[in-house]
Structure formats: structure tokens, C-alpha cells
Amino acid sequence: MRQLLASPEARQRDIGAMLLPAMQPIDATNALIAGHVDLLIVAGPLTIPDGAPPLAIREWVRTPVILAVHDQVPVGSIKLDDLVAILAGWMTRWPDGTPVRLQLPPSTSRDLWQVKAASSGLASAIDHARQRPGLTVVHSDEDLADRIEAVPGSIGFTTAGHVLTAHRRLRPLLIDGIEPSAGNEWLGLYRLHRRIAIVRHQPSAPPVAALVEFLLADRHHDLLLANGLTPASVPVVFGD
């Protein structure tokens, strides 16, 4: 959003918006319904109360949920069994002896739900991890990435989109040798992803409609793809 709104095209067309900090989903929905905000960018399901005015929801992009590590962790790929061992607290050191520092989002995180749904072993290990004393739990993508960047040996789940757009010094790990890519997601080889949608009133005020049209324009696809975000309207391409 920041890159697109800072572009010469946006300034030329008088496309702009004030970007507010992240809110809890229920607070964001209530703010939209009450007219305090004009548009939401959401990365999970919304609970829309009875009697709410008509809202238009349009998927914008999706991005892989990745297992990221501090840039000095000496591994590039991890076996699923070893990931289970890390989450459960059975594997406590990396090959160079650095302590493994697990960073988890809160239990309500949709990304964490997906990880737990991917494997009964992962689900059990995550539940076990939450019982460990001293476990660090963060409450936003920014906080989690800050912790992984700052604490040697750290590992946690975030998204490719956040790592690339925020220029984070984090490295994604392959899981069982599988790259977290849109192609592998489509093939069913990699099942962790976050879908991001645009929500607004229907009908919307002309400036809001113009902003949404601008965000969805095909001409921005290269910028989005370069930042780990696959537009909903882009076909998946395989091979060279």
C-alpha cells in the first residue's frame, strides 16, 4: 500500500489514503460500519454483525506463510519431524550450538490455525509449546519479525509478503525441501498461505472506489509479485 500510494501515478491521479495501524478484526469491522474508516485490508475472516450495511469484499493478493529464522541460523531447510521437535521443545539447539528461540503468534492467529491443520504432529507440538514456561508470544507481524531479527537462534512463522515489503533480515526455511511458493501452493505441495482482501461499503464514495480500482489494476502486478504477493487475478506459471 505504501509503495503504491507513493508512486508518481498515484500522485498524478490524486489517489491517496491515510494508513492507520493494525486493529483487531472486530474493532476494524465496527470502525468501517460506523464510517470512521473507509476501507479495510484484511488477512482473515470477518464477523459482520446483523443489520450491518452492505459491504463489498474482494480478494486482493495472497502470500505464503513461511517459517523464518534469524539470518545467522546455519540451516536453509528443515525436516517436518525436526520442526515438530523444535515446537515441542525436544530440539533446543541449532547445529552450531546456538539455542533455538521459538517465537509464536497468539493462539487466535489464523496463520497458526493453518499450521496446526497441516499436521496432527504440528498441532500437538504447538499445543505443547504453549505450556512451556518463558515462551515468547508476540501480537503482530511487526513484533514477531522484530524478535526474530534481534534474537540469535530465533524461529517463527510470518509471511513472505511481510519479509519482502518490510525489507526484513530474515531467511525463509524450506520444509522437507519444499519451497513456499505460489506454484507449490497450487500443486498442493505447500498449504500455508494468507489471503488478503479489500473490504468497503457497497456502494462506496467515489474516492474510495477510485482507490480500490487503482489497487486492483493489472499494471501493479509486477510490483506485487516482487514483494511476495500474488494478485488474485494472476495465473500461476510453472517452469521457465
> How far is it from the N-terminal to the C-terminal residue, by CA?
29 Å
Q: What radius of gyration results from the CA coordinates?
A: 19 Å
Give the name of the CATH architecture of the largest domain.
3-Layer(aba) Sandwich
Structural class category: alpha/beta
Number of domains: 2
Q: Number of helical runs?
A: 11
* Biggest sheet descriptor: 8 strands, mixed
Kindly provide the name of the CATH class of the largest domain.
Answer: Alpha Beta
CATH superfamily of the largest domain: Periplasmic binding protein-like II
Relative strand content: 15-25%
Instruction: Tell me the series of helices and strands, N- to C-terminal.
Output: HHHEEEHEHHEHEHEEHEHHE
Query: pLDDT below 50 for ≥5 consecutive residues: which ranges?
Result: none
Features of this protein?
eight-stranded mixed β-sheet; globular; 240 residues; D-Maltodextrin-Binding Protein, domain 2; alpha/beta; two-stranded parallel ribbon; 10 strands; 2 domains; 35% helix; 11 helices
What secondary-structure arrangement, pairings included, does this model have?
Elements lengths: L1 H4 L2 H5 L12 H10 L4 E4 L12 E16 L6 E2 L1 H9 L12 E4 L5 H9 L1 H10 L6 E2 L3 H10 L3 E6 H6 L4 E3 L1 E2 L6 H5 L6 E9 L4 H10 L5 H6 L3 E2 L9
Parallel strand pairs: 3-8, 4-5, 4-6
Antiparallel strand pairs: 1-9, 2-6, 2-7, 2-9, 2-10
Helix pairs in contact: 4-6, 5-6
